[in-house]
């Protein structure tokens, strides 16, 4: 007997077929808006060229090459442009960003500049919750791109104040410190790591011995480290951390609850808590870089290449030069890559100002002397600084 010929089994007395609950929240108009917003963000990326990989001059006889990935050439002038693009696509595809509702972000400045740009691009309001100590040029750029700055006195309050504003306005708290590492497609799709290795392909040392990153969210170091493992490259990932940041101490001790009192003087990097996007297990090496060394390094960069950069570039450059020195001392050849994170014109009254360094009590001359002597062919000697 075929199944269709069988009589249905009798139901017990008093039972009934329950109705299926069906709630349809599809919104064709919202879907069209999301599609158009994603098109605008992707079209913006399609119009943009990749950033340059600059060669930093070292003595040719060393057989070592040092490169800086110049992220200052993005439309909003910093490494955070890549992150902001990824965060907006992540938020749109997850259904978090809606028309006419504000996007809110906790930031020390550069991410907020880039997010203000993308918010304006897709036509939503943007509120940046930034410490009052943020440079005036960064707040000006946030407002130039259509954002509004909400200043807080305590840098550690940016998280809860952003969440409060999102609840109050019905907007979306982007939360870069949680979502940075997951918003970026680390397997490829023109992330920063894929770009670096593609640009190194014709160099004499195409697989770098080390890539040096700095950490604000930790998303960049996570992306680079994951890509290196994914592609099975023998490249170490080093994170350089400034003073008044907990990442180094938390990484060394293995303490996910490590904290640091005070705010980092190196804008854009260093955090008072271990951020969710920072992946300690993906990092091979860390350095705790004195702030005076970071400032000295951006001054040396300007002297040697004519390019001014922000303080976070100096933190990474100091660490990269120490790694170069280690390769040289070991008689090894190879390449090292670090990042030029953002332009120095945002910090003319800070890292490029002798008055500011004096007010901060930073003596940069011993660190500058270490680098200049090294670049002139001498050994790397830190014994006289500290």
Q: What this model shows, in words?
A:
The chain is an alpha/beta fold. 40% of the residues lie in helices and 13% in strands. It is built from 13 helices and ten strands. The chain has helices at 28-47, 80-93, 110-122, 136-144, 158-169, 176-183, 192-199, 219-230, 247-253, 291-305, 311-329, 354-359, 365-375; strands spanning 53-56, 64-70, 103-106, 126-131, 148-152, 172-173, 210-214, 236-241, 285-288, 334-340. Helix 2 (80-93) crosses helix 6 and helix 10 crosses helix 11 (311-329). The longest helix is centred in the N-terminal third of the chain and has 20 residues, at 28-47. It starts with 27 loop residues before the first helix and ends in an 11-residue tail after the last helix.
Provide a short characterization of the protein structure:
This protein is of the alpha/beta class. The protein is 40% helix and 13% strand.
């Amino acid at each position: 007997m075929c199944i269709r010929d069988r009589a249905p089994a009798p139901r017990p007395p008093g039972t009934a077929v329950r109705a299926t609950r069906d709630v349809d929240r599809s919104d064709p108009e919202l879907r069209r808006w999301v599609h158009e917003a994603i098109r605008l963000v992707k079209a913006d990326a399609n119009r943009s060229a990749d950033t340059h990989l600059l060669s930093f001059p070292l003595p040719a006889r060393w057989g070592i090459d040092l490169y800086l990935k110049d992220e200052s050439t993005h439309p909003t002038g910093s490494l955070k442009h890549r992150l902001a693009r990824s965060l907006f696509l992540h938020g749109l595809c997850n259904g978090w960003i809606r028309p006419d509702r504000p996007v809110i972000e906790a930031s020390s400045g550069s991410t907020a500049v880039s997010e203000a740009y993308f918010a304006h691009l897709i036509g939503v309001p943007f509120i940046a919750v930034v410490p009052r100590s943020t440079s005036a040029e960064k707040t000006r750029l946030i407002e130039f791109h259509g954002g509004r700055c909400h200043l807080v006195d305590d840098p550690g309050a940016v998280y809860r104040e952003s969440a409060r504003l999102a609840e109050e306005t019905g907007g979306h708290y982007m939360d870069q410190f949680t979502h940075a590492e997951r918003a970026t497609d680390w397997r490829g799709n023109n992330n920063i790591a894929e770009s670096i290795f593609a640009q190194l392909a014709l160099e004499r040392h195409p697989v770098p011995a080390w890539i040096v990153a700095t950490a604000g969210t930790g998303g960049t170091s996570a992306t680079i480290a994951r890509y290196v493992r994914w592609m099975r490259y023998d490249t170490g990932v080093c994170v350089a951390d400034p003073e008044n940041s907990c990442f180094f101490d938390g990484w060394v001790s293995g303490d996910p609850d490590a904290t640091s009192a005070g705010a980092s003087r190196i804008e854009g990097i260093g955090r008072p808590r271990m951020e969710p996007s920072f992946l300690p297990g993906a990092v091979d090496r860390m350095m705790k870089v004195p702030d005076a060394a970071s400032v000295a390094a951006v001054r040396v960069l300007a002297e040697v290449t004519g390019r001014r950069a922000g303080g976070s570039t100096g933190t990474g450059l100091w660490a990269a030069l120490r790694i170069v020195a280690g390769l040289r001392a070991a008689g090894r050849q190879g390449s090292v890559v670090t990042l030029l994170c953002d332009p120095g014109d945002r910090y003319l009254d800070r890292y490029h100002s002798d008055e500011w360094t004096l007010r901060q009590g930073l003596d940069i001359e011993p660190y500058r002397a270490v680098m200049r002597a090294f670049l002139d062919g001498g050994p790397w000697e830190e014994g006289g600084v500290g």
